[in-house]
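thought: fold this chain, then report.
action: predict
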Amino acid sequence: MELLNALVEKGLRRELPTREEALAVLATSDDELLDVVAAAGKVRRAWFGRRVKLNYLVNLKSGLCPEDCSYCSQRLGSEAGILKYTWLKPDEAAAAAAAGVAGGAKRVCLVASGRGPTDRDVDRVSRTIEAIKERNEDVEVCACLGLLSDGQAERLRGAGADAYNHNLNTSEATYGDITTTHTYADRVETVQQAQAAGLSACSGLIAGMGESDEDLVDVVFSLRELDPDSVPVNFLIPFEGTPLAKEWNLTPQQCLRILAMVRFVCPDVEVRIAGGREVHLRTMQPLALHLANSIFLGDYLTSEGQAGRADLDMIADAGFEVEGAGEVTLPVHRVDAAAAAGGCGAQGSAGCASHGEGGGCGPCGPCGGHAQGTGHGSGHGDAAQPAAAGAARTDLVAVRRRGAGTDLPPNA
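observation:
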């Protein structure tokens, strides 16, 4: 297919595709799907080999957010039956993080609901980062606390944070349709503040909120221009009790096309499959590893993921390998550029969270406010029943009831 050959060549040269080419990837047929995956897989392997980076979420403060992000289970007015608790103590958060590291995670993402941190909150998170690194000196820590104020990114970096996550989520043109309590420009500014402070920037999107293919291409092109080290791709989990509860728009095939498009547009960055992986990709998750080089291990912020052991088995069975703590995630040219700028990108990692369950973040989703929930695979609760293509799979959505904020051991 001429289109795919051209995109592979551009990806190997880090050349930006045209908007028309990106849209054409999303418009390919199911008959062409394996060709699309194979082509994007060549680009993924050229920059990242067969390594899969594991990331682990710790929800430091759950629920009761004043922001109104429509996709988020922690939003203002949410009726989702999620866990609600105030800040974990540093030792509690460090214990939760240790479970993820023991499961193979090389990055821990610290997420807190809310519009953004106060200076006191930054102090609290700084103590938490220190407690985590005392136990696991080499672990990477990404903070996801919402909109930042002047000087806060520098303070987080000084405390040992390696990265900061704040997602754009959707196109600038449609941003006001999902959130009214802050703006798209607010999100861009926070990512830029993190980069200016020398933190590795993590910023991604949420697919499946009713946006058009043009919106998806717009936000991914905006991310390419912003140039984060990591791009988490979240697939909306329509959590009951949120405004988008009825938005079941995705199929596994469309999710793969979206991931392929992201890889072609952002060939040399860490592309992470975040919230919604189990719910929307389902049995096609292993194919997605040919496109993305990073996933979350175990549970998400307010929903359960598939068993951590199942994640590890899936990676091995698909012929991939877990990235080791001593391996550098990013290609050498990105590491060198970060080092020259005095940033944490030299550590080789990408960003963290996702949109909600995949990793929410300060205000709205993984970046700005928190998370939507991400579902879990079969193996939790009742056995999943087959459903027609495109049908709602509410049987795959489970509210997190274990790990941080509970007395039960985490899933990692």
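thought: worth noting. Residues 195 and 201 are 6 Å apart (CA to CA).
final: tokens above.
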